[in-house]
Amino acid sequence: MNQNPHLRPAKTAVLLLNLGTPSAPTPKAVRSYLKEFLSDPRVVEIPRIIWWCILNGIILPIRSGASAKKYASIWLPKLGSPLMHYSRLQAKELAEKFAHHGQLVLVDLAMRYGQPSTQQALEALQAQGMERLLLLPLYPQYSATTTASSFDEVFRVLGTWRNQPELRLVKHYHDHPAYISALRDQVQSAWDKDGRPDFAKGDRLVLSFHGLPKRNLMKGDPYHCECLKSGRLLGEALGLEPGQYWVTFQSRFGKAEWLKPYTAPTIEKLGKEGCERIDIFCPGFPADCLETLEEIAMEAREIFLEHGGKDYRYIPCLNNNPEWINAMYDIAQHHLSGWPLGVESDATLALRNQRAESAKASIS
């Protein structure tokens, strides 16, 4: 291979961006992960000095051990973190999808916190000749706390590079038809297997999204509106009427008001009011993780059953559903429009070599 980096075949790449996960379900690994995550000013908008004291003096010492036990309850035997497992599967199968269509596109995964880091992923793509880069966040609904933070980290790394790639961003796809279709397929597949809820008798579908402080909405973050739209479009795709499905928000932290309605109190209310069956799905999480498998599939189930509910059914996230892989491919294809989706031909590379040699000759 020609050692001149300017003469390498120029390749197009897609980098999937996700939040991250501890490397192990241990207090030490969880503490390291939480410290990086909760130190991000995009995530916690509290004056740094005050937050540093709270984080290091209260939260990390108390939450690391408790969170480690929760991670241990959802850790996959021999596979590890569910989020990592399914995110890697998504990257692998998206690459195979490109290859199936005869397109040579590099696909990799980067985690905003933990490993593989954004810097590691970008450097790996650079080593393979990446000259054009599409960022595809695994956050369907845009938020400054997730999407923008992941973009920030990419910009930080690229800011240290002398030779930067062309760059495109997927801001959101909360209402993309292929994404909504994948969500519908995931829910409908569960119903085909286990039976559709009897909505006439009061059964309900709960669509639980990750929550944010209400002040984020008031400051202009579009996340809340995009979640509501995703929920409405999914409800319509399933043929449901308003009231047969509820959009709620989970994972509230601290005393400040967050986006409402909250998931846990909603489930408790439904149980007390005589709703016998709840099906619950998390459309904003493309891959199962702690927040879906422990908080929703386990904790929320206990709340519903303890307050009168009879039948609680958790519908897994998209994970590596073929319809979701197709959706990622469609979304990427739209944003890659106009870019060559392969390597340069031998003839083009030979022409570039010839021109480079001519340039050298003219200089000497």
From TrEMBL:
Q: Where in the cell is it found?
A: Cytoplasm
Pull one GO CC term from this UniProt entry: cytoplasm
CDD domains xrefs? Ferrochelatase_C (cd00419), Ferrochelatase_N (cd03411)
Binding residue positions for Fe(2+): H210, E291
Q: Could you tell me one molecular function GO term of this UniProt entry?
A: metal ion binding
Q: Which UniProt keywords apply?
A: Cytoplasm, Heme biosynthesis, Iron, Lyase, Metal-binding, Porphyrin biosynthesis
Biological process annotations from GO = heme biosynthetic process
Q: Which InterPro entries match?
A: Ferrochelatase (IPR001015), Ferrochelatase_C (IPR033644), Ferrochelatase_N (IPR033659)
Which reaction is this enzyme known to catalyze?
heme b + 2 H(+) = protoporphyrin IX + Fe(2+); Fe-coproporphyrin III + 2 H(+) = coproporphyrin III + Fe(2+)
Coiled-coil blocks: none
The pathway that the record names for this protein is: Porphyrin-containing compound metabolism; protoheme biosynthesis; protoheme from protoporphyrin-IX: step 1/1
Its EC number is 4.98.1.1
Q: Which family does it belong to?
A: Belongs to the ferrochelatase family.
Q: Per its database record, what is this protein's job?
A: Catalyzes the ferrous insertion into protoporphyrin IX.
Checking PANTHER family in the record gives: FERROCHELATASE, FERROCHELATASE, MITOCHONDRIAL
UniProt name for this protein: Ferrochelatase
